[in-house]
């Protein structure tokens, strides 16, 4: 099957700006996502990476239909979301579920967890016995004792609450899961359990998964493809194996160098970024990365580099990619 034939979700030229309301920047326009295009194939795990503030969470919400883009469109099975009937949009919203970063605030503290997990079943009109049966099965599936269904969220640990969030998402019989930093607020010892659970659920329920994370080692472990975002745009898009073996953008190079295990090479210390991401309210001219790029040349300050495919399925946005990274081939 070609990639085109297996497409389940596609984003074309997405743009999203927010008008700020805080007293110091009142009325200023923040561009969170700028001309972003991507696609997701059935059964694929797509990673979206970048520092905090690069626009990846906003992008996730647009892909899930929770935010409207100002420009561009999301297509679900080839149909733009804007063209779907109310009924079909409801189906899209049910079959595209989000798992949020903070399991503490994403669950209603006044609801029992059995009711939280069964919410999608209530909406679809399931009977009470069916709901009870499904909740018990889902709780077991995600490693929770079904006897705890009458308890409230504050009686559970962070890892258990993330399991509740995953069970609730699965109750909707999703095709796509969008997990936004699902382990970043959890104890390091729990993170691997939740990542393994997500992978197991993806396999068992035949899901497509979008993993949003600033943690490249998590994405390396889980993803088929990875997109690197910087100040609202995609700077690199590649199969995971190619990205980690032979990245084609200095920003990706810096992120990879900062991964403790891979980056434990004295040569890589020069690459690691130590300064902060510039403000999205004051996006640099030309290549957005140029103020932090150790390779920047004159052209980089003036002309934005286009996202260009350098090998099959591997694209980067860097004027000097062929000089800095002369080696490239498709690994997979
Ligand atoms: Fe660095 Fe220039 Fe490439 Fe931007 S275009 S990443 S500044 S070398």
Task: Explain briefly what this protein structure is.
With 332 residues, the chain is of the alpha/beta class.
Give the fraction of residues assigned to helices.
25-40%
What integer is the average pLDDT? 90
From the N-terminal CA to the C-terminal CA, the straight-line distance is 16 Å
Give a count of the beta strands, DSSP E runs of length 2 or more.
12
CATH class of the largest domain: Alpha Beta
CATH superfamily of the largest domain: P-loop containing nucleotide triphosphate hydrolases
The total tally of domains equals 2
Radius of gyration: 21 Å
Q: Give the name of the CATH architecture of the largest domain.
A: 3-Layer(aba) Sandwich
Molecules bound to protein: iron/sulfur cluster
Biggest sheet: strands side by side, in what order? 6-7-8-3-9-10-12-11
SSE succession: EEEHEEHEHHHEHEHEEHHHEEH
User: How would the global form be characterised?
Assistant: globular
Largest sheet: 8 strands, mixed
Q: What is the SS-derived class?
A: alpha/beta
Stretches where pLDDT is under 50 for at least 5 consecutive residues are none
Furnish the topology, listing elements before pairings.
Blueprint: E1 7-19, E2 29-41, E3 45-49, H1 56-63, E4 71-76, E5 79-80, H2 86-95, E6 96-99, H3 113-123, H4 128-141, H5 158-171, E7 176-180, H6 188-205, E8 208-213, H7 216-222, E9 225-230, E10 233-239, H8 240-245, H9 250-257, H10 298-302, E11 308-311, E12 314-316, H11 321-324
Bound molecules: iron/sulfur cluster (SF4).
Iron/sulfur cluster (SF4) is lined by residues 249-250, 287, 289-290, 293, 295-296, 300, 305, 318-320.
